[in-house]
Design brief:
The chain has 17 helices and no strands. By secondary structure, it is mainly alpha-helical.
Length: 417
């Protein structure tokens, strides 16, 4: 992906300097732009199967036996902390404005109209918005691009699947797991084989129009994402484990460092799961049943870093293209990002289809993804580290209600088994 970023930018700068403007425009519109559009359409194509299957499997994995105390504590913690993470990102984008102040040609860089039809948040009473969240026809909602209604349907479907126990339901659950596995194979193929070509094409198109001006918003965006992730990990998690979990933040981060390093190197919450469970049981000395339940469910559901990244990315690209999102729309985006964190695959670049979906919902040109795809691998490593650390912090919180009161250090907790 980084090679594709470099190739697209360098070739675009060279072409901008030596090729006549009319010929360059014809070449980009005829050959280069369609390649980038195909890549974006592949991402949109996979949004619905990934979102539905990941949400249903993620919610149903909680299991009937854990839908009580453990599941309730974890779900409440996930919604609260994910909401805080998105709020941090939204505030940083609004205050620092990494996408503001760009030349008009930047905002004119997006061409075509391949995003799904925008689904505007309600401009009437909040109760109307709550009613609209529940689809009268989930198939129609999916066809119209009303992904918020699809998310609500998927959550309800997953809950019903978790509490229903019949042979037919087990077969259905296996089929949905199969859908998820196939969708993961498809997204892996798109990101492995198509993404480098698509990124190079999109960056070439943007660079031929913008020139060196393309670099400033990218650097500003990376800085805002890293600042938000750092504040959340070392600020919110420190407060969480200290006051919710009764554990010293220094001891927590010292015990979690192996899992954090594994998450950074693999950029996959799923791949880090064995290391995280080992760290939770041996280093943090959490009860085994709590660690395994919270971390297994958290690898699919409790993705605070991803939620923050999605919120920052959507608002940043809206600023780049001069699309003003009022407070109501920003609140809706925050809610979608919190729910989207549950439906995001725990694999490298698994959040990109969700980001593409949110962009389409709010009328932000999906071509803007080209600005961030080249740096997404590094940001993916960083947000995965925040995700895994957040899973461990959630396990510390949930474990506090499952053992004798801690005396202030992990060593005082009950043994792992």
């Amino acid at each position: 992906m980084l090679w594709a970023l470099a190739a697209g930018v360098l070739l675009g700068l060279v072409a901008r300097a030596v090729v006549p403007a009319d010929s360059l425009t014809w070449f980009v519109d005829t050959f280069v732009q369609p390649v980038g559009q195909i890549f974006l359409r592949l991402l949109f194509m996979l949004v619905l199967p990934i979102l539905f299957s990941a949400l249903v499997i993620g919610v149903s994995d909680v299991g009937v036996g854990h839908l009580g105390r453990l599941g309730g504590r974890m779900l409440g913690y996930t919604v609260l902390v994910s909401g805080i993470s998105v709020l941090i990102g939204v505030l940083l984008v609004n205050v620092l404005g990494p996408g503001r102040g760009l030349p008009d040609e930047v905002r004119a860089a997006a061409t075509g109209g391949n995003a799904p039809a925008p689904v505007k948040p309600p401009e009437t009473k909040p109760v109307d918005f709550l009613v609209a969240m529940v689809p009268d026809n989930p198939v129609k909602a999916a066809a119209n691009g009303d992904m918020l209604a699809v998310i609500v349907f998927s959550l309800l479907f997953g809950l019903a699947l978790a509490v229903t126990s019949t042979p037919a339901v087990e077969t259905l659950r296996t089929a949905i797991q199969g859908l998820y596995d196939v969708a993961m194979t498809m997204i892996d193929g798109v990101l492995r084989w198509v993404a480098p070509i698509g990124v190079a094409a999109l960056l070439f198109s943007l660079t031929t129009r913008l020139g060196p001006a393309v670099f400033r918003p990218i650097l500003a965006y990376v800085g805002v994402v890293l600042l938000g992730l750092g504040l959340h990990m070392f600020g919110v998690y420190s407060l969480s484990v200290r006051f919710f979990g009764g554990m010293s933040p220094r001891e927590f981060f010292r015990g979690a460092r192996v899992a954090m390093l594994t998450a950074f190197s693999t950029a996959s919450s799923s791949a880090t799961l064995p290391s995280a469970i080992k760290v939770a049981e041996e280093n943090l000395r959490l009860p085994s049943h709590v660690a395994r339940f919270v971390l297994t469910a958290g690898s699919a559901m409790n993705q605070n870093g991803t939620a923050l990244f999605e919120g920052v990315t959507v608002l940043f690209l809206a600023q780049v293209y001069g699309i003003e999102l009022d407070l109501v729309r920003q609140i809706v985006i925050m809610g979608i990002c919190v729910l989207g964190g549950i439906g995001t695959a725990g694999v490298p670049a698994g959040s990109l289809p969700v980001v593409a979906m949110i962009l389409g919902m709010f009328g932000v040109p999906p071509e803007g993804l080209a600005l961030i795809l080249g740096v997404d691998r590094f940001l993916d490593m960083c947000r995965t580290t925040v995700n895994v650390t957040g899973d461990l912090a959630a396990a510390v919180f949930v474990a506090r209600g499952e053992r004798a009161p801690a005396t202030g250090t992990p060593a005082a907790a009950s043994p792992a088994r």
